[in-house]
């Protein structure tokens, strides 16, 4: 099944407090996958699930009139990873992940790895929580509007080289960022400008903090 043009929204069970901001990001034609305890956000988000997945160890199966995939308790994939893999198999190439960071650090780091996996596949992925928007920067440049209070560039996959940052308080040219030295934290877009980040080799996690 091809789903080109539609975005897949995956909802996990981590805390969401700024529902108004999150709802403003949603589109009428989004395909919604709710993962297990992510169902606790269903009413507040005001959407209908297109697919429900989970082993239901942290939320009971609601038996809603929506496609539901019940997973075994013992498995290699987390519920969130399974949801993304299932959506990839259905042809989606644009992903918004909600409720997937915060709380348990192991799940947070695992879900950040999903962004790297999607980037490797040439798919678009973005995580939004109460504080920030997260996405990968690799082959394609990234632009950052001055509506964000701060932005940070972190390496979670190795070494990134030939990094350029323009229109920012702390510009870079031909720089290198490794996993060991996170000097790309808390940069600022120059007022009235749009910052631009390019990475010649490797990839970086871009975190844009809401004002």
Q: Would you write up a description of this structure?
A:
The protein is of the alpha/beta class. 18% of the residues lie in helices and 35% in strands. It contains four helices and 13 strands. The termini are far apart. The protein has two domains: 123 residues, 3-Layer(aba) Sandwich (Rossmann fold); 74 residues, Thiamin pyrophosphokinase, thiamin-binding domain (Jelly Rolls, Sandwich), CATH 2.60.120.
**CATH homologous superfamily of the largest domain?**
Thiamin pyrophosphokinase, catalytic domain
How many separate domains make up the residues? Answer: 2
The shape is globular
Count of helix runs: 4
* CATH domain fold name of the largest domain: Rossmann fold
Question: According to CATH, what is the class of the largest domain?
Answer: Alpha Beta
Low-confidence stretches: none
Number of strands: 13
**DSSP helix fraction:** 10-25%
* Structural class label: alpha/beta
**Annotated CATH architecture of the largest domain:** 3-Layer(aba) Sandwich
Mean pLDDT comes to 94
| Radius of gyration over all CA atoms, rounded | 18 Å
Largest sheet: 9 strands, mixed
Order of helices and strands: EHEHEEHEHEEEEEEEE
Quote the distance from N terminus to C terminus: 39 Å
Strands of the widest sheet, in order across it, are 4-3-2-1-5-6-7-13-9
- Strand portion, in percent? 35-45%
């Amino acid at each position: 099944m091809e789903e080109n043009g539609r975005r897949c929204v995956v909802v996990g069970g981590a805390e969401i407090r700024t529902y108004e901001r999150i709802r403003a990001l949603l589109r009428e034609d989004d395909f919604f996958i709710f993962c297990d305890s992510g169902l606790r956000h269903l009413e507040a988000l005001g959407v209908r699930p297109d697919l429900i997945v989970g082993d239901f160890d942290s939320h009971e199966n609601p038996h809603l009139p929506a496609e539901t995939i019940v997973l075994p308790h013992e498995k290699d994939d987390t519920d969130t990873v399974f949801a993304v893999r299932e959506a990839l198999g259905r042809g989606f190439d644009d992903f918004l992940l909600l409720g997937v960071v915060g709380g348990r650090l192991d799940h947070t780091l695992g879900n950040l790895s999903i962004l790297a996996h999607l980037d490797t596949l040439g798919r678009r992925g973005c995580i939004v929580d109460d504080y920030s928007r997260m996405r990968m920067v690799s082959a394609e440049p990234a632009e950052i509007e001055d509506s964000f209070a701060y932005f940070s560039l972190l390496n979670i996959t190795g070494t990134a080289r030939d990094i350029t940052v323009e229109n920012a308080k702390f510009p870079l040219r031909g720089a290198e960022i490794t996993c060991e030295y996170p000097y790309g934290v808390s940069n600022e877009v120059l007022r009235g400008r749009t910052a631009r980040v390019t990475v010649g080799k490797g990839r970086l996690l871009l975190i844009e903090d809401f004002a």
